[in-house]
Design goal:
The chain is about 30% helix and about 15% strand. The chain has about 240 residues and is α/β, with parallel strands linked by helices. It has one domain: Rossmann fold, CATH 3.40.50. It has a seven-stranded parallel beta sheet, sandwiched between helices. The protein has a three-stranded antiparallel beta sheet with strand order 4-8-7, covered by helices on one side. Helix 1 crosses helix 2.
């Protein structure tokens, strides 16, 4: 595992965007595993800038996202479908028919999850998977549990995740209670994993994920078993790690 300690959010965004950009330049028809949330927004902005300056070309890229809320229509501005279009897809020359997320509008969870696993499998899997870390160490929406789940599944979001996501909704009552998420098996089968973390509120999750015991109670700790993980985190997020 390689850990880049950077000064702040802006530096984290630039450095992590450089890792993504290197992947796209090295393999123009790569599969990018993408994440939503507030941490990667600066990274996406940087990728858009590099696209606009002619330094990046997304025309052959395929994308697979980690997760999607269950029950939110695509046009809801809190759906991850909306987020990805708003922050990246609508600003670069990616072929939108090759951008994939779990179908949050599919009420049949088993169908939605099986179909998404088939989609990811058909792409050949992610060359690089971008991940943020939840306060409880979740990756995707794989919440603390007694097991690591392998495939895409429907999760009940924990109180802590619902609270953390309330900032994006009018009220806590509006936050969806369930989501479809890629499983740990799929995440771990990405060839490379890029984790971004910023802020003191992530210090515990960062410490436990990368320096604590490997346990499904901290789902991010499984990343210690992956052969090619790059972490880009700022000083505040790394403040509990002895680096
Ligand atoms: C998002 C996702 C989540 C977030 C995590 C951190 O697709 O899967 O695991 O990466 O909740 O969220 P932020 O970046 O908002 O702190």
């Amino acid at each position: 595992m390689r850990i880049y300690k950077v000064k702040d959010y802006a530096e984290m965004s630039r450095k992590a965007a450089a890792v993504m950009a290197a992947q796209i330049v090295a393999k123009p028809d790569c599969v990018l595993g993408l994440a939503t949330g507030s941490t990667p927004i600066g990274l996406y902005k940087q990728l858009v800038e590099w696209y606009k300056s002619g330094d990046l070309d997304f025309s052959e890229v395929t994308t697979v996202n980690l997760d999607e809320y269950k029950g939110l229509p695509k046009e809801n501005d809190q759906s991850y479908y909306y987020f990805m279009n708003d922050n990246l897809f609508s600003h670069v020359n990616v072929d939108k028919s090759r951008t994939f997320l779990p179908d949050g509008t599919q009420p049949d969870a088993e169908k939605a999850c099986t179909e998404y696993d088939e989609i990811v499998r058909a792409t050949g899997g992610a060359d690089i998977q971008l991940l943020g870390l939840g306060h409880n160490g979740h990756i995707g929406f794989n919440e603390p549990s007694d097991v690591f789940k392998k495939n895409t599944h429907c999760v009940d979001l924990t109180e802590s995740t619902i609270k953390a996501n309330t900032r994006f909704f009018a009220s806590e009552a509006d936050v969806p209670r369930q989501a479809y998420t890629m499983g740990i098996g799929t995440i771990m089968s990405a060839k490379k994993i890029l984790v971004v973390a910023s802020g003191a509120d992530k210090a515990d999750a960062v410490y436990k994920s990368f320096f604590g015991p490997i346990t499904p109670q901290v789902q991010g700790s499984v990343l210690q078993l992956h052969p090619d993980v790059v972490v880009v985190a700022d000083e505040a997020a790394l403040s509990k790690c002895d680096l």
